[in-house]
């Protein structure tokens, strides 16, 4: 794909993949779950959503990648006690930037 004329973090690829989330116990305030996602690069931006209903008090805190082919999703437990998220499917959106590293400004 050829570059655009504006070189400021344009998205060159936008993909969505599914990842199976097994039943996950969260005894503290959060836990991180690691998924293998072929093709993901450390410079990509990732966003995760749960395709279904999250257990009351559990939410997705953030998703990130710092290693090729790996996405880490942080689940947050705001119940004040141990909670278990039932198994389901995560939808992971992968945004690949045209420039790497991603620019720190927009001008």
Overview of the molecule:
The chain is an all-beta fold. The protein has a single domain, classed as Immunoglobulin-like (Sandwich). It is 0% helix and 55% strand. The protein is built from no helices and eight strands. It has strands spanning 11-21, 24-26, 30-36, 45-51, 58-67, 70-77, 83-85, 88-97. The protein has a three-stranded antiparallel β-sheet, with no helix packed on it. Strands 3-6-5 form a three-stranded antiparallel β-sheet, with no helix packed on it. The chain is elongated and about 45 Å long.
What secondary-structure arrangement, pairings included, does this model have?
Blueprint: E1 11-21, E2 24-26, E3 30-36, E4 45-51, E5 58-67, E6 70-77, E7 83-85, E8 88-97
Antiparallel strand pairs: 1-8, 2-7, 3-6, 4-8, 5-6
Mean pLDDT: 88
Q: Give the proportion of residues in helices.
A: under 10%
Strands side by side in the biggest sheet: 1-8-4
CATH topology: Immunoglobulin-like
As a percent range, the share of strand residues is: over 45%
Q: In the residues, how many domains can be counted?
A: 1
By CATH reckoning, the class would read: Mainly Beta
CATH architecture: Sandwich
Number of helices: 0
Distance between the amino and carboxyl termini: 23 Å
State the secondary-structure class.
mainly beta
Give the strand tally.
Answer: 8
The rough form would be described as elongated
